[in-house]
Amino acid sequence: MKTKQLSWALLVDHAATAWQPYYVAFVWVSIAWVSAVFLWSVILEVYAVKGALHAACHLVWGVWLLVNICYHYYQAVHLAPGYTSDLDLQVLKDAMTFEWRWCGTCNRPKPPLCHHCSMCGRCVLRMDHHCPFTANCVGAADYRHFFLFTLWLTLGCAYTSITSCMWHGKRFTDSSSTLAGAPCNPAGVCCHWGGVLRAGSAAGVALLGGN
Ligand SMILES: [Zn+2]
Ligand SMILES: [Zn+2]
User: Fold this and answer.
1) Using one digit for the tens of pLDDT, what is the confidence trace for 78-93?
2) Which of 53, 120, 154, 155 has the fewest CB atoms inside 10 Å of its own CB, making it the most exposed?
3) How far apart are CA 123 and CA 107, in angstroms?
4) Residues near ion ligand 2 (Cβ under 5 Å)
5) What is the rounded CA–CA span in Å between residue 124 and residue 109?
6) Where do the structural domains in the chain lie, given as residue ranges?
7) Ligand 1: distance of its center to the CA of 6 in Å?
8) pLDDT, tens digit (0-9, with 9 covering 90-100), for 90-119
9) Predicted model pTM
């Protein structure tokens, strides 16, 4: 029975590991999509109605949010979280106290708060959790980037959602808009609200703790 449970756990781990690159690609595509929708729904419209200065202010703040989101996401994906296998075995053994445990899989000591991740296949220092959306563990070395990614993502999603909702309707109703009186393009409207929905849900996910 225990062997059966173990093989199921291994199967789930393998399947989850195989899907991780697609989750990461999904996040990058979502960021690109929301940025494009923001440019179309907000920046171009603010430029047409309020002028270049207003549009430039929105653009600078939007780009600042985007740079921070991309930088911290890239680091959260690519930075090693703090594997014990990257540390010198003798240094670990010398530092070992009675509180430390031993990982039979890595054949190395486990300091307090260190856990073996079955997805990474290694022990991670101060392991928080394994995030499928970064295809990486959140541990001692990359916790800061993961936290800042979720923080900037929440700010970015809230900003794009609110400004898109404020400005999208004006495209078709405001007499000074470039699209005043124009019929709504269903594909464009779906694309817009898909982006807003995605930004809103990403903000919710980020607020709830990353995944
Ligand atoms: Zn281990
Ligand atoms: Zn992991």
Assistant:
1) 999 999 999 888 888 8
2) 53
3) 10
4) 117, 119-120, 130, 137
5) 11
6) 28-79+140-207
7) 16
8) 888 888 888 899 999 999 999 999 999 999
9) 0.79
